[in-house]
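ingest -> validate -> predict -> emit
validate: passed (alphabet ok, no gaps, 385 aa)
predict: started
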Amino acid sequence: MKKSLLAVAVAAALPAFAQAQSSVTLYGIVDAAIEWSNDNANGSGASGAGDSGLRLINGGQTGSRFGIRGVEDLGGGLKAVFAIEHRLSVDTGETGGGNITTLPGLAATGQNNKFWNGQAFVGLQSGWGQLTMGRQYTPIFWAILPNDYSGYLFYNNWAGYSSTANNVGAVQGPIRLDNSIAYRSPTFGGLTVYATYAFGENLSNSPVNGSAIAGSGDVWGLAAGWQLGGLYIGGGYHSFDQKVFTATGTVTSVNQAFKDVAVITVGYRFTNFGLSLGYSELNFIGSAAFGGSPSASTVFGSAFLKFGPGTAYLNAAMVDAAGFNGTRNDSGLQIGLSYLMPLSRRTSWYVTWGQNDLSGLQSTAATTYLLDSQTRVAVGLRHNF
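emit:
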């Protein structure tokens, strides 16, 4: 009798437990491709050209990942939300994505020490919007995403362009911020506002990208996107509290730390075709050692065309550099052309081509233009779950 009563109690508790867990979702992407790249794509300005050839790569369309996200109804229209996401390289099983953390006073490390290196946040959501805390995407990332018709996928998308400063995005700068508090407004009349404040953990003569930088390291950003039918306008501004640390003498390589970023985009999406254009200005920390204030301005665009069973995507950007120490300070062109065909709701195959001509951004010490004519082609398979 006691066993029967216990069984009934456990059975009665299970639906409540299942209901509490039903708002938690496990999701992910597994993406692998066979890529051919030429000798310049496999080399660098410092070490020379590599060998062209085939290899298996992770994420020809997008990076592989798995994550957990959830929502709990707290009553009265208030909800708790969270997300944690791990990026990995499916070709090797290694941790991938995310920035390498270098603590103040420590030398740089080549090991990625972030496990939840995609997103990691917790917060509240209600009719007034969403407020979250953790490692999160920036306001500009969200505000211009609708006008990158590839969805930040494939070669040379708007989050993946290279630039003059340690391969950060030439269009929008950093796309994730640690230690951040982010707010997303409800959408009113097609307008959505994004705001973030990230605590930089008080930099003081800290090695940031190999440079001597002082300041709090705090970042604040504000962005917005407005949708009216097929028309979308998005843009924003990020400011970085970093400055030259001069107490130890002359600094010559501080042009790799951000000062501010401003972006504006406009696009129109038809049923089977879309076209967008944008402009961004990235300003970097300057130094009296080489004069001026380094900057990179970029004109970029995106387009899509549905034909046959799939969709073709085109992304292109022309970046112009000025004031960078030891750099040719000229222009560079980057293009990505891709075709995506779904095999099911969750699985698709694709072919993608990328061309980078960045010799104008190469170091003046290089005797050959190894950043010119970098070509990559890949055929891959992606599965979402």
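Residues 1-21, 101-110, 164-168, 207-211 have pLDDT under 50 and may be disordered.
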